[in-house]
Amino acid sequence: MMKLSLQLALSGLLALSCATAAFAEAAIFSQYSYDQAKQKAEQDHKLLLIDFTASWCPPCKRMESSTWPDEALQAWVKENAIAIQIDVDEDKKTTSALKVSAMPTLVLFSTDGSTSEVGRQVGLISPAELLRWLKEAKSGKSGEELEKAQDASNDSAIWERISGARQLMLSQKNTEALEEYLWLWNNLKNDDATFGELRLKMVPVEIKQLCASYPAAKTKMGELRDAAEKADNRADWIILNGILDDNARTLTWFDNAKSDPNKLETISKNSALLEPVLFSNCRWADAAKYLYPQPLAKIAEYHKRAEDMKKPRPDTEVAKDFDPFPSMILLVYGAYIGANKEAEAQKIADECLRLDDTPAMHTALENMAKSMRAARGK
Hints:
CATH architecture of the domain at 24-138: 3-Layer(aba) Sandwich
Distance between the termini: 54 Å
Order of helices and strands: HHHEHHEHEEEHHHHHHHHHHHHEHHHH
Helix content: 55-70%
Shape: globular
């Protein structure tokens, strides 16, 4: 795609492409800032549609020439929404606040008194698909209806379910919210490349919020925990203990398991889930010994994963300054500092800087060391 862009530039066609993009922007996008657009959308009782883009993003350029100029799409947006574009390089604050790391990303907000996200699309999308998604989101369809409208495994459908569940919870429609969260719990997989992190982290946090105000949700989660334990599904059992504010149960299991050689592999497999439990209880020595017994190998594993995350999909581009590696290694480094294993911690820091000698890495290591030494009282 970059080669094609250069060929277009050399042939003089780039100017025509830019003119087309400028026409699309003028026709469909307002020139408001994020705050101004939010205020205008609330004032006009319209949706707020944000297109996160970048000048160096080939899929974004394709949307400029093939999606945004569509007349039916433009007409619908003009009547129902305030639409703006945000260049991720020019407005890093909003990009970071809305957790956007791949382009193009479309984020849609309702403005019915309290601006809240109702859905997002990541990647190149056709005018017809985008228009259908916008109409369905505006209609307030339930998660079940949206599932019938599009494949539930589709990225946008999952985001719509997550946003819909959150909206139901905020509206205190607890029974319906529980149904949506149960669907997400039962259908997302921990090892899914796209949504695994959501099931491991974000979805449990929101279910925990629902449990705090809706006893039936807590009862249901308790039943799921019992079933997970019976099935020896230790990963789900640990997550559900967290949802139920019962990490003491996880610690009891861990203390028994760490003295049983046959269970050390189970601890290793669930290290990411055990991290917050051990750290919140200042069990840094346990984390260093049982979660990261070979810290340099763990650092190498994280580095490979970070490099893979930085590679764009065919229909997206990743932010130029996107570097997940510094945040990924912090708990490994912090565990050894907290356990007062300074020599080993220094080896970890040296390896991290060898792999990623950036200001972000230096800052991350310095801040973690400072906070962990303060936490251990030395």
